[in-house]
Design a protein that fits this description.
single chain, 280 residues, alpha/beta, UDP-N-acetylmuramoyl-L-alanine:D-glutamate ligase, six-stranded mixed beta sheet, three-stranded antiparallel beta sheet, 9 helices, 42% helix
Length: 280
């Protein structure tokens, strides 16, 4: 390489890193695509942009979801996901990672193998197992891999009560004591913290509960009477990841993400959609 070419290359690299240095923080999502735009990576991106981050996307599956439910799921090749995930992590100064729909055990295994090489990056795991309509989005092997391999390296996992029940192998969670015991069971896998989402609770209160080795913290919320709740879990986890990418501590990131979702539900509660509309 001649001096002139080296000089041009050096200037281009300086320009590139100057641009990146002034860029919104990069948040990398690993999740499925929802062709209708209500959930999945589409909801991830809206939440991340809302919180001031810039989304990078690794697609694990292509899904068609309509007002009558999930019509089709085409899972991507895990090795293609490995290539995309590794390529983005090596090319961009990613500040946080959020995983959503992973589909099966092979996908969870590949994602874990790659992300485990970047342990310095905060990882938020949304343990997506079923769609809002009840369709299975993670097989039994995937649940085992998630619990045994991915959770031990994550900073936060965000199950709802149904997901918490499945992840801990319990028949049911009927009380606050049951929930605390189940959350501690997940903490024993090695994950940094467990945020149990309150949307499946009975009554008007839908408080989210954060469990960590430092104790328990409540994030209050009120139920919004609306059918437009698709993508709430995706949006919350992605907004938390964006907060972490922006340098917020975990509690502040959760508080602001919770407020964002709550406000969006209120704002869009009367929107008219074919079937359940998006929360954000």
């Amino acid at each position: 390489m001649g001096p002139a070419i080296r000089s041009v290359t050096s200037r281009l690299l300086k320009i590139r890193f100057t641009i990146l240095a002034g860029h919104p923080p990069f948040v990398l999502t690993v999740s499925g695509s929802d062709a209708s735009g209500g959930s999945g990576l589409q909801a991830d991106n809206r939440a991340i942009l809302n919180r001031g981050g810039f989304p990078l996307n690794v697609v694990t599956a292509l899904t068609l979801q309509t007002p009558t439910g999930v019509q089709s799921i085409d899972t991507c090749d895990p090795e293609q996901v490995r290539l995309h995930l590794s390529g983005l992590l090596k090319s961009y100064p990613v500040k946080s990672i959020k995983t959503g729909m992973l589909g099966n055990g092979g996908m969870v295994k590949v994602v874990t193998e790659v992300i485990s090489q970047f342990r310095q990056i905060p990882l938020v795991v949304d343990p997506v197992m079923r769609s809002t309509s009840g369709c299975s989005l993670l097989d039994e092997d995937g649940i085992r891999e998630l619990k045994n391999e991915l959770l031990p390296i994550c900073d936060l996992v965000t199950p709802n009560l149904t997901e918490l029940t499945e992840l801990t192998g319990r028949d049911s969670i009927l009380s606050g004591s049951d929930e605390s015991d189940a959350a501690r069971q997940l903490l024993e896998t090695g994950c940094g913290a467990v945020l149990v989402k309150g949307g499946h609770r009975k009554g008007d209160s839908v408080s989210d509960m954060l469990y960590s080795r430092d104790g328990k913290q409540e994030f209050p919320g009120q139920r919004v009477d609306t059918p437009n709740t698709r993508g709430t879990g995706c949006s919350l986890a992605s907004a938390i990841a964006a907060g972490l990418a922006g340098g917020r501590d975990l509690q502040t990131a959760i508080e602001r993400a919770k407020s964002m979702v709550q406000n969006s539900l209120e704002l869009h509660k009367d929107d008219l959609w074919p079937g359940s509309g998006p929360a954000l």
